[in-house]
Amino acid sequence: MKTLPLALLLSLATPAAFAAMPVEGWRFDFSAKPAPGYTAVPPAAPYDAARGFGFEPGNTAAATFFSADVPEGNVAVTVTLGPGTHTIKSEVRRLMLENVVVPAGQTVTRTFVVNTRTPAIAAHNGVKAGIVNLKVPRETVQEAWNWDRRLTLEIHGGADKVEIRPVALPTIFLLGDSTVSDQPGEPYASWGQMLPRFFKPGIAVANHAQSGETFRDSLARRRIDKIVSQLQAGDVVLLQFGHNDQKQIKAGNGGPFTTYKAELRQHVEMVRAAGGLPVVVSSMERRRFDANGKAKSTLTDYAAAASQSAAELKVPYIDLNATSKVIYQALGVEGSKAAFALPAPDKLDNTHHSNYGAYLLAKAIVNGLQDAKLPVALQIVDGFAFDPAHPDPFDRFAVVPSPRYTNERPLGDEANR
């Protein structure tokens, strides 16, 4: 696993750090006889800063991690795939391609868009220059691939060629807590990690969520500043907090209908001022059932505050809180266990999700974008369909797990496991 001190991450944010990438982008060939115009990638060649590309540590027989230097922003990645079944994730386990089957004797090409970033904040859209206050060591070690100068691909099933080029495209920015953020290792996952899989290569998904955080943390650590500094007119920002905000009630320094709504409003106004479209998302429920097997509510006040804020501010609203209960109820007391992380046989995490649960919630978010009739819904993959009352059965779920595993529970929400 890569370990990057904060000072090094900040140094990588300078323009000179991107000199290794050709202006027109990269064209890599992993075969023994590279095609004309492609850069040959020697087998198992480690990443080298002077060269600007190479394999990362942690490769297995099933998956390889390949990185290339890129400028901050959106890049289109086109992969040429040979016979077999292929799944590709980017940065910290963001699902880009799922089980692409290529018949014997054939090749196919697929294109997807990845957003990359550094901690540096540019002075733009009324935001002052500075840096994001990253969490150490979580974001500088376990999640360093989200903040370095490289695009990192987690490739299952191999790839013959990879082409990478910068693109200017609309972006969906995500801001939230551990249920949204890129979780660094199995068995944890979030809907933010699964969301890119459901969009065509005409749009990017930029996940700025972080474990253990609230709207207040977003302001203090300048995460919303980072997003606003990059916003282009028409970009969408999905805002989902609530789980960790409950701790402010216990501490006597906040509540859903006071500070939570005020801080949410501040985010909405900042996004609007920069020309973006804010979308309020209520927090999904934890896994709780009563004695009769009915899904229970634990975030009612925060869901109500989110709904009220969206109505008052006249912004789109996705009621993930209500939809999640429909999903859990459909799965049932026992079936819903598969939707949540199981870091040990006797330690089911009833707050944080498994790949399966995160996948279902990502589909619920896509439904919400469709229902709100947002322009970004035009970029949803063809054939998408999801009924929360009849969720995809677990025995048909086949997203391959990542090699990286952690026993470390995501930050926050300690009192509500």
Stretches where pLDDT falls below 50 for ≥5 residues? 15-19
Helix content: 10-25%
| CATH C-level class of the largest domain | Alpha Beta
CATH homologous superfamily of the largest domain - what is it?
A: SGNH hydrolase
Mean pLDDT: 94
What's the end-to-end separation, in Å?
27 Å
Total count of strands: 17
* Major beta-sheet overview: 5 strands, mixed
At CATH level 2, the architecture of the largest domain is 3-Layer(aba) Sandwich
Strand arrangement across the biggest beta sheet? 2-1-12-5-8
* Overall body shape: globular
Which percent band covers the strand fraction? 15-25%
> What is the number of independent domains?
2
Q: Which structural class fits the helix and strand makeup? A: alpha/beta
C-alpha Rg (nearest Å): 21 Å
Q: What sequence of helices (H) and strands (E) makes up the elements? A: HEEEEEEEEEEHEEEHEHHEHHEHEHH
CATH topology of the largest domain: Rossmann fold
The total count of helices amounts to 10
